[in-house]
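Lecture notes, part 5. Sequence design as translation. It can be helpful to think of inverse folding as translation between two languages: the language of shapes and the language of residues. The source text, in structure tokens, appears below.
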């Protein structure tokens, strides 16, 4: 091969290299094309091997020709590597979601809670500040805890006050949260301060203020020297905190076999400020809280000595309280699962659940 032939070969090689690199769409294809021309066993390498076959005085010129061709093909390779990498980056950007860490985070949307839950949380907070603990009891209850231990023996007419759902097993769905009184006394003894929010069940005819499934909050405070005045102070504070202002309260006698004396606590009507309206039946008072001093028989059933300890208990109608607080006129709305009945966070004074969107 003479120098002229070599020049022609190198020119052809450069053209082939340009076409092959042009055709490479991926880095993989680019690497293969590059190896064909520049690799150890590539075309240019093979021509380098022919240097010794040239006359000594021609070798410097041949070397320059080979080096120049090598440099140009190397530059071509680099140019196409940049082209392939930048088009791949563009495809990645178009296909994938960009993550920009400088963007502000998405605000979690605030969820709404059921009005009963909202008031329950508020009441729990109020009582926890007063040193009460929050207890729970089973909804499926033994007759003993729901009635007998609460001084309501079998055949007692007071059993008819609460129409009961009986289960085939002989157990029942608790008609009130008062069974938790006995469970808490047996578990913790005296002195004792507990509240027990929970669901109750009664076989009732439904109307605007009666449900067969509703919530109560039981309260129980036992210590030495507890009197009716302690009870009034605690319940007065409860009402003031829940409604956020001073409301008048009054006690009327009320009969419940598990308290003696027993009371109904009324609060002044919110709607007419105690002047008398249709809601309070022109009396100016609304009945909210049955309560009383724990009956000695109940203390005994809970394992507490009534000669040493006294206490008060109450059974707040939580569902009805929620109705009053949020202006819900029909109790049945609350068990329908209707999202419109939920309390938006802006109207709640308790903690708020954050729900991410
Ligand atoms: C009781 O259940 C007693 N265990 C309360 C108690 C506890 C008294 C401790 C003394 C000491 P009563 O049946 O009145 O009492 O129910 C209490 C409250 O539950 C009522 O004032 C009312 O607000 C609510 N309530 C009762 N029945 C229903 C019902 N069917 N639907 C909605 N709320 C009801």
């Amino acid at each position: 091969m003479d120098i002229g032939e070599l020049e022609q070969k190198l020119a052809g090689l450069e053209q082939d290299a340009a076409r092959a690199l042009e055709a490479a769409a991926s880095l993989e294809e680019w690497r293969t094309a590059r190896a064909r021309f520049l690799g150890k066993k590539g075309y240019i390498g093979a021509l380098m091997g022919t240097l010794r076959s040239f006359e000594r005085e021609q070798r410097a010129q041949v070397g320059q020709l080979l080096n120049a061709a090598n440099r140009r093909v190397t530059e071509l390779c680099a140019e196409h590597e940049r082209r392939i990498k930048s088009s791949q980056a563009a495809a990645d950007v178009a296909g994938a979601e960009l993550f920009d860490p400088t963007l502000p985070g998405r605000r979690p949307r605030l969820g709404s809670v059921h009005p009963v839950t909202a008031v329950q949380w508020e009441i729990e907070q109020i009582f926890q500040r007063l040193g009460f603990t929050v207890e729970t009891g089973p909804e499926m209850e033994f007759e003993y805890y729901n009635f007998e231990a609460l001084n309501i023996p079998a055949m007692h007419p007071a059993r008819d006050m609460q129409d009961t759902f009986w289960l085939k097993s002989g157990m029942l769905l608790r008609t009130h949260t008062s069974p938790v009184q006995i469970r808490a006394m047996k578990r913790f003894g005296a002195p004792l301060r507990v509240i027990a929010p929970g669901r109750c069940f009664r076989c009732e005819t439904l109307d605007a203020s009666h449900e067969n499934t509703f919530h109560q909050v039981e309260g129980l405070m036992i210590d030495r020297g507890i009197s009716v005045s302690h009870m009034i102070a605690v319940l007065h504070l409860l009402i003031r905190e829940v409604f956020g202002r001073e409301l008048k309260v009054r006690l009327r006698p009320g009969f419940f076999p598990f308290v003696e004396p027993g009371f109904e606590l009324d609060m002044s009507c919110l709607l007419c400020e105690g002047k008398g309206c249709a809601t309070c039946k022109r009396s100016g008072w609304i009945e909210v809280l049955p309560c009383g001093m724990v009956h000695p028989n109940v203390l005994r059933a809970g394992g507490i000595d009534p000669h040493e300890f006294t206490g008060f208990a109450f059974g707040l109608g939580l569902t009805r309280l929620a109705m009053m607080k949020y202006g819900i006129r029909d109790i049945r709305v609350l068990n329908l699962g209707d999202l419109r009945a939920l309390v938006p966070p802006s109207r709640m004074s308790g903690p708020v659940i954050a729900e991410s969107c």
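The translated text above is only one of many valid answers, since several sequences can fold into similar shapes. The chain has a mean pLDDT of 88.
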